[in-house]
Amino acid sequence: MPTLNDVASKKLTALQQENRQRRLRDTVRGVGSVIGREDKQLISFTCNDYLGLSQHATVKQAASDAALRYGAGAGASRLVTGNHPPYRELETKLATWKRAESALVFGSGYLANTGIVPALVGKDDLILADKLVHACLIDGARLSGATFQRFRHNDVEDCRKQLEKHRADHRNALIITDEIFSMDGDAAPLAELKAAAEAHDTWLMADGAHALTPSSVPIDVYVGTLSKTLGAYGGFVAGSKLLVEMLTSTARSFIFSTGLPPATVAAANAALSVVLENPTLATAPLIKAKLFTERLGLKPAVAPIVPVILKSEEATLAASALLETQGFAVAAIRPPTVPEGSSRLRFTFTSEHKDKDIIRLADFIKEQGWI
Ligand SMILES: *Cc1c(COP(=O)(O)O)cnc(C)c1O
Fold this sequence. Notes:
This protein is of the alpha/beta class. It contains 14 helices and 14 strands. About 45% of the residues lie in helices and about 20% in strands. α7 (about 155-165) runs parallel beside α8 (about 190-200). Pyridoxal-5'-phosphate (PLP) binds near residues 110, 113, 207, 225 and 227.
């Protein structure tokens, strides 16, 4: 038998040869879009803190107050000991925000999806998922043991065809999609998917991790995160009261994992208050993204995520490194995060970006001929 280090070294060599090894970069974030990395200051286009709320004074104060009042950790699973007071207030507000009867906070968006899908469907059931859904939805689908089919990206016709073909062979069925696709920045046709689901006696689950504003389409199972628009950490589901009650007793990632630290819940709660009190705040990131796409002659952004696809891992890493020499931090996204041959630069826009920085970035990209 090879040693564990032999196995690790072989895997790492293979990843290096494919330009797929990943590395942690020590990074200091602060107020605004500037980050500190290895003695350099960079303007970051890599951060999902869309509204800068992780750095908002009221939000930081709420986190600090909660830590001092309730302690640094939750102590145990929420069901066992950890349902500290800020949870109730946050869940009530989340339900209102997402126009649902009820909401339930999980440890993270990842934990929410891997816990919720297996709580909804099992081996006699069918899952139809968009080809580009987030990895944690795929993991949830696999854990569920349900028959797992994919439909072509944002292709409702393909989804309908598969429902016609497979639905009758299964007890319950669930369509799964991202609301905004995290690596492509496009939006799912939620109204059409909802109609297809209803026509085939199927539930619709949507992951709105990157959605800045609530969807107008009623979603049976809506999943969100506290880590992006709200700048904190954690995940949540919004839906009917009975759905939430069932998940509270059956979602394994909820039951068997410690509650979030009180400071984190209080931060999300304070951030959500800021969002609810300032309805125009959430429009800023998309305006910034549109400035970028307009300057580059791309089709107008529909979400604050814009990919520039360079195909190869090597070209994408080189482009990201070159951008860094110009003072920009931009992530090189490679498989398995995106499909083979579609490595890309992924630009994330927040309310914190300055127009002049976006223009300088777009003009540099144009000069390189990457578009
Ligand atoms: C970020 C993300 C998640 C995971 O959320 P975390 O709270 O970071 O675990 C889930 N789904 C999508 C679409 C995401 O972009």
